[in-house]
Amino acid sequence: MLILLLLGVLVTYVLVTWVNAVREKRKSKLDGPALLPVVGYGHRLIGLDSAGLIRVFGEFAEAYNDAAFAQILDERYVVLSHPKYVEHIISSTEIITKGRSYNFLHPWLGQGLLTATGYRWKSHRKFLTPAFHFNILASFLPVFIKTS
């Protein structure tokens, strides 16, 4: 009896997770690969090295154009492949809240520019911005040309 109850709970969890993922995909109005229950798109990424990941996401970008919806386990992602969308996100001073997938970096990197949000991120960025000013980078241009 306990096994049937656990099996029922597991099946219910899988169905609810899958229905929610499909609902989120429809709400996003973005194309994307077919989602498997629970794992989403994650089954395509298991066991891949970095070159394999780049290849898979390259295929993803070709198949779904500029922006696509993907789910890996219970995390939902919007995958951007057009430079104008990526530039908008990277240059924004308002879209700075990181997703849960950054949490594993906190023990190694702390609350630095890569992982911080809010006021802490803004203060770190303000501190580092002068180091990457165009005039400073221009002085390194001969080195860039020589070593590239």
Automatic annotation (TrEMBL):
It comes from the Eukaryota. Gene3D superfamilies: Cytochrome P450. GO terms for molecular function: heme binding; iron ion binding; monooxygenase activity; oxidoreductase activity, acting on paired donors, with incorporation or reduction of molecular oxygen. Its cofactor is heme. The keyword Zinc-finger does not apply. It is found in: Endoplasmic reticulum membrane; Microsome membrane. GO terms for cellular component: endoplasmic reticulum membrane. It is a peripheral membrane protein. Residues 1-21 form the signal peptide. Keywords: Endoplasmic reticulum, Heme, Iron, Membrane, Metal-binding, Microsome, Monooxygenase, Oxidoreductase, Signal. SUPFAM superfamilies: Cytochrome P450. Belongs to the cytochrome P450 family. May be involved in the metabolism of insect hormones and in the breakdown of synthetic insecticides. This is Cytochrome P450 4d2a. It comes from Cydia pomonella.
